[in-house]
Amino acid sequence: MTATAAALFAVAAVFAVGDWVAVAEASARLEYLCKPAATAALVVAAITVDPVHADTRGWFVAALTLCLAGDVWLMLPTGARGHDWFVPGLASFLLAQLAFAIGFALHGGSAGSYALGAVLVLAVAVPLATRFVRALVQGGQRALIGPVLAYLLAIAAMATSAVAAANAWGVAGA
To answer: Taking the model in full, what pTM does it have?
Structure first.
């Protein structure tokens, strides 16, 4: 890892802590600064890191950039006509998870490691999906079931790819 990347990861960590403080203190102004700044620092860190595989870095930079877009969408206030930005934010994160999955899969493991990853991920994802669908139905949000399940599948693909690639950071992030 380059010194620049390490410094940027530290900057991202400081902004992440700032975001947690902002949420705890309900400080929208601080959150609007810290949340995207943390993710932006991760984007630049990913650009400056010395990767084992440059093609993986490209996919991860794209994924983190999509995460930054998702952060911004989800921070936007509800519009004057009641429009919220949940679905565009969810779509950004869905595409990010798919980009992460591709990045891991480029240099992933064997079919057996993918099977193991899928079994482990399904053991967690199926109960979560059941719980999410139940909550959406009870909350009168049936229209969100498809987008939420699509996002869950994208996360499952990313997590399975991270397990198959034996990438401990990816598994921890998943």
So the answer is: 0.84
Rounded to an integer, what distance in angstroms lies between the CA atom of residue 147 and that of residue 86?
10
Alpha-carbon gap, residue 16 to 30, rounded angstroms: 11
Distance separating alpha carbons of residues 110 and 105, to the nearest angstrom: 10
Pairwise CA distance, residues 25 & 18, whole Å: 10
pLDDT in tens, 118-171: 999 999 999 999 999 999 999 998 988 998 898 899 999 999 998 888 877 777
CB 57 within 8 A of CB 106: no
CA dist 125 and 119 (Å) reads 10
The Cα 70–Cα 30 span in angstroms is 18
CB 92 within 8 A of CB 69: yes
C-alpha to C-alpha distance for 119 and 28, rounded to whole angstroms: 40
Is the separation of the CB atoms in 115 and 121 below 8 Å? no
- Joined tokens for residue 17: 């802590």
